[in-house]
Design a protein that fits this description.
It contains 22 helices and 26 strands. By secondary structure, it is an alpha/beta fold.
Length: 592
């Protein structure tokens, strides 16, 4: 492999930037309420210490290292420390349950696991004895309470082990770096069955670094500040942080999404990845204020937005736009700190009118389409002349065609190597000519914009970008004696809800025991004691589910889904499109 190709090996890119930028800021994080900088020199020093400590613990080439934590500098330091010695990083969502974490640890055969805080530590200690390959747990934050032992070390103690390794061993691994090495396994939920480990190698990441350089020429530079609050365990934020570091910009870590508003004011970032939910909330809050404003202010607002939309489409500034910007648009941009020049948006579909609104106020929201299996971005909105109803145009060197059932098929250097230890699912995921099957149906328009028209795969994604396997949740809850049928609602919604058909035989017995009087089934399911019963049952049934998978609201239905009404198939599978349409009013009420 020639040197120029290896220049885009992510480990080499970080080392090159550290050598060049030295005392410039690489990372920023909050300590005791104030923002603290970490220089490129210190960043690289800490990465090297992790690498040497991992070598001291006998980590071999392509061994698996887990990270189970919220966003923090140590997340990236541990990640790169593992990658430098050609190990493979396996992220685990900080909110995963013990059962979910156990599956990933065992399937990936993780040897060393970095954990963030008390919550993650407690989760791992619960299942540690069920994980035979797990040798060491490293606690990254000092705030957790624990008793250190041979298998459980503090970050400080672990880093101290770096002194036990000859630095030449690290140099040997660095010199042997290959683009064909896996850099990560990311576990993605399937519609049924166990999660699948997506194998991504350094060539996948190098492809995306190059394609983003071509798609975003000179957009990201050393003067830029990127706020990182989406989970690094997700490919969207992880790949974006890799790109920011590749460009030599500053990454600012937020451990809690509750702090985003304050961080925008304090840091005034120029870049920030976000999911559609953030834009939806901002748009709703602004519209709510406008509705309650006096007539003259409502008229001024609408006029300014119209001027902004004209500018967004033509990129030609007029005196009207300048006035609109001064009086209204700039004030709206200040809600995001005032310095944002681009906001990558992904993880779910963003409603067109909301995207257009942000472009009108001067925020370059760049909606992208991709998935874990494609190392994130396949397509994204262009800077101008894009259609907000689309998912954008193809990234450089991405190949897409429309296959059977109008399925969007993807081929290119960004596509995964397959699913870890799962040749059957890998074979199912590709066409004979090597295109990856996305599970989304779509089409192109005459201008090259790509559109999603339907979902082929039974997998839902909330507006927060979380994947939900509805059949899995329905299976868990549907076992209850009071539940006859259940349809989970989650796609493009801010949380999971459900339509539930009770088992009326059991429910009527229960009502009799409590001496509940009712005229008919409709009156019965509206009774406060019945609502309380289902709230309690759901709470008990959902303990094994991750927080984002849990049903937050439900509606009880007086009659069952039927084959006659085409709500279920002859094999009793839900026809979700029909159900969503027929019960639209009830569903909307759960999100109002």
């Amino acid at each position: 492999m020639n040197r120029s190709e290896l220049d885009f090996h992510f480990v080499n890119r970080v080392r090159q930037q550290a050598k060049m930028l030295n005392q410039a800021t690489a990372l920023r994080h909050k300590v005791n309420g104030g923002w603290v900088d970490i220089s490129w020199e210190e960043f690289q020093f800490q990465i090297d210490r992790v690498s040497l400590a991992l070598l001291a613990h006998g980590i071999d080439v392509q061994d698996k290292i887990g990270i189970f934590a919220h966003n923090m500098p140590q997340w990236t330091i541990a990640d790169l420390g593992a990658l430098q010695i050609r190990a493979v990083t396996v992220p685990i969502y900080a909110t995963n349950t013990a059962k979910q974490a156990e599956f990933i640890i065992n399937n990936a055969e993780i040897k060393i696991l970095f954990v963030g805080e008390q919550e993650q530590l407690d989760t791992i200690l619960e299942i540690k004895n069920n994980c035979p390959t797990l040798e060491k747990i490293i606690l990254m934050k000092s705030t957790a309470e624990f008793s250190p032992n041979e298998s459980l070390l503090s970050w400080h103690s672990f880093m101290g082990k770096s002194a036990d390794t000859d630095p030449n061993r690290l140099l040997e691994r660095l010199n042997d770096a290959r683009l064909t090495d896996l850099f990560t396994l990311i576990y993605t939920s399937g519609t049924t069955g166990d999660p699948k480990g997506v194998m991504l190698d350094f060539s996948n990441l190098a492809h995306q670094l190059k394609s983003h350089d071509l798609a975003l020429p000179d957009v990201v530079g050393r003067e830029d500040v990127s706020l990182s609050f989406l989970p690094l365990s997700h490919i969207f934020e992880r790949a974006w942080v890799a790109y920011v570091l590749h460009r030599g910009a500053v990454v600012c870590y937020l451990e809690s999404t509750n702090e985003v508003r304050n961080a925008l004011t304090e840091l005034k970032p120029s870049l920030m990845c976000a999911v559609p939910r953030l834009y939806e909330k901002m748009y709703s809050a602004i519209q709510d204020k406008v509705i309650h404003a006096p007539l003259h202010r409502r008229m001024l607002f609408q006029w300014a937005i119209n001027q902004g939309q004209k500018f967004a489409h033509t990129q030609k500034s007029t005196w009207r736009h300048k006035i609109a910007d001064k009086l209204v648009l700039s004030k709206l941009r200040n809600l995001l700190g005032g310095n944002i020049k681009m906001m990558p948006c992904g993880g779910a579909k963003l409603e067109g009118k909301i995207g257009e609104f942000f472009h009108a106020i001067g925020i370059n929201v760049k909606l992208g389409y991709g998935m874990t299996e494609t190392t994130a971005t396949v397509s994204c909105w262009a800077d101008k002349h894009f259609n907000a109803a689309s998912i954008g145009r193809l990234m450089p060197n991405a190949e897409v065609k429309i296959g059977e059932n109008n399925e969007i098929l993807v081929r290119g250097g960004m596509v995964m190597k397959g699913y870890y230890n799962n040749s059957a699912e890998t074979a199912k995921a590709f066409t004979e000519d090597g295109f990856f099957k996305t599970g989304d149906a779509g089409e192109f328009d005459e201008n090259g914009n790509l559109y999603i028209t339907d979902r082929i795969k039974e997998l839902m994604k909330t507006s927060n970008g979380k994947y939900i396997a509805p059949q899995y949740i329905e299976g868990k809850l549907g076992k209850d004696k009071f539940i006859e049928q259940i349809a989970v609602i989650a796609d493009a919604k801010k949380y999971v809800s459900a339509l539930i058909v009770p088992s009326f035989e059991a429910l009527e017995d229960y009502a009799k025991q409590l001496n509940i009087k009712y005229q008919d089934r409709l009156e019965l399911i509206k009774h406060s004691e019945i609502i309380k019963l289902f709230e309690k049952r759901l709470e008990e049934l959902q303990q094994e589910l991750a927080h984002f998978e849990q049903v937050k609201k439900f509606t009880l239905l007086p009659q069952a889904f039927s084959i006659k009404m085409e709500e279920i198939t002859p094999t009793l599978k839900l026809r979700r499109k029909v159900i969503l349409e027929r019960y639209r009013r009830q569903i909307e009420a759960m999100y109002s």
